[in-house]
Structures are given as C-alpha cells and as structure tokens.
Amino acid sequence: MPQPAITVGIIANPASGRDLRRLTANAGLYSSTDKASAIQRLLAAFGATGVTKVLLPSDMTGIAAAVLKASEGPLARDQHWPPLQILELPLTQTVSDTRLATRQMVEHGVVLIAVLGGDGTHKAVAAEAGDTPLLTLSTGTNNAFPELREATSAGLAGGLVACGRIPASIALRRNKRLLVEVAQQAVREWALVEVAVSPQRFIGARALSRSEDISEVFACFAEPHAIGLSALCGLWCPVSRQATHGAWVRLNPGAEHALIAPLAPGLLHGCGVTASGTLPPGVPHRLSLAAGTLALDGEREIEFAEGDTPTVTLDLHGPLSVDVEAVLAHAARHHLLAVAHGHRLHPATLC
Known about the structure:
Strand content: 25-35%
Helix content: 25-40%
Order of helices and strands: EHHEHHEHEHEHHEEEEEHEEEEEEEEHH
Number of helices: 11
Low-confidence stretches: none
Structural class: alpha+beta
Shape: elongated
Oligomer: single chain
CATH topology of the largest domain: Rossmann fold
Largest sheet: 7 strands, antiparallel
C-alpha cells in the first residue's frame, strides 16, 4: 500500500521587503530573485529530509516561474528536490492572494507551511492556517514575528517536523496574539506582534515611522533587539515570546524621559514614555485616545472615532510555529541527520 505524500506548502509574498520604508528609512531590499533562491534552498533541504511534495502559489513577479524552471534542472535532480506543484490562483496582488493560497494549501492537506515575508505576511497566513504549523522566514521590513535565519537550516528543521521525526512538544511553539475589537464597527482582527495607537485620523500610507504619530503600543512579546514598533516595549519593558503576558507603553512628546528606539531599519527616534505595564491574557484593555487609527503589526488598518470603544486583548492561543533551534538541537543529540551506507546522500553512493 503506497504511503501518503508528505506535502509542504511554501508562500513567498512578492511584495514583502518592498514597501514605503525603503524611501523613508534605510531598509534593504529583498528581491524576487532573492526569494526564489531562498525557496530553492528550502527545496534542497526538504528533499534531503524526506518531504515528497511541495505546493507553491503562482505570482506576477516571476518567483514561481524561476523556481519551477530550476526544479527541472540538473541541480534539482542531483539534490532530489521533491516534486513541485504550482497552485494557479486568480491573482489580485493584494493580501487576498496570500489568504487564498493558504486556504488552498490547507485543503490539500499540507502538514507545514513555510512563509517568506514580514509580520504582515505571517499574520495573513496565520489567519487561514488554523493549527497547520508555520516555518517562518524573514523577508520583510520590520520583522519581529519571523526570526532571521538561513533557508537551508530552516528547511532541514521544517523537513524533519513535516516527516514526523521530532516530537511536537519539542518542535512546535504556540504563539501569542492580540485581539483587536471595535464593537461599534463589528471589527474583530488579530495581530501577531503589536498594536500601535496613532492620533492620525486616517489610514493613509499605512506604515507608522514617526514618534509623534504613536501614542500607545501593545505587544505580545517585545525583544530588546527588535526593529519596529515593538522595540518601544522591547527597550523599555521587554517581554519574551515564552512569557504568559504582554507589555504596553504610553507615549507623549512632552514626557520627562525619551527612549531612543529603531522604528524602522536605520530610523532612530526619541520617543517620550509616560507610562508602561504588563498585559495579562484575557483582559480587554481600553485605549488612551478617543479617536485615531490602529496599526496592526506595523500598518494602520482600523480607524476609530469618538463614540467607538476599541479594546486590545492578549490571547495565548495564536498560531503554531516551528522552533528551528530546538528542532536542530534535538536532531543533533539524536543524530537524526545521519544516513547509512547506501543512502543517496552518503558519500560512498555519490562516488
């Protein structure tokens, strides 16, 4: 009886790493060529660990086409890349493409989704993935949720997890998230890293990169080395990914103390801090402003006015992600990447 295919999905946001902060700050560019190359490194690692099928959505920037062409070449044959299936989507070049690709992958029964993008891309995938684990790779601007790592080692970890060779208790991490609700507008949205409150009344260019445009930040986790709005908490009242609480800071230009924080790559602002505290799970937190906008994971999405009562609530039941370091440490302790004589990757076989 044939074994069921071990199917993994890969989603690379063509727009990640290409937003307005290339102009307003000194953020780098992560091109479509870079993303196609990262996917090819993932495929090599997936093939080495036993993944038997990979799904990749179509796009308008040539990422899928470049990967498909490479998959038919000699390097792919030598490295035994798993067969690649392109999901042909009705593309809109909006976040809807990411959401649709995720839904289709879940329907196809993928056991893992590798995501190449920033915080916004991961938020969109998490909204549709349910409990399908995410292998997170950073290719965006302000990346706090996906950690920066090389695609080859991440792919080895993802492949071991997909093939069931690592206990879930070691391999997977349950992430926190923030629930944003505006009852008067019937709004209910999630953020994976932080929610920022701005006095700006309109969404506009979406990204927030000036200290005077931020009055409050709520964070699931906030690491001192972070870049972006969560750095305001990370450098004032840090909280780890594993902690069962979050953090918040309140800002005002007239505050006695100003915190120098990297709001974007190369963009440092002094931000006046007037108050801070912890964010316990399950407790709705009201805002200090009567009107303005809410930025979820770095981009303004929600406008609220007098009479609205937005709340932010920490939730401990966010998406599952692969703990790459823990997986590879377990693999090293148990020699899970060792292969016997006769294996296609054994040096004697390659001679």
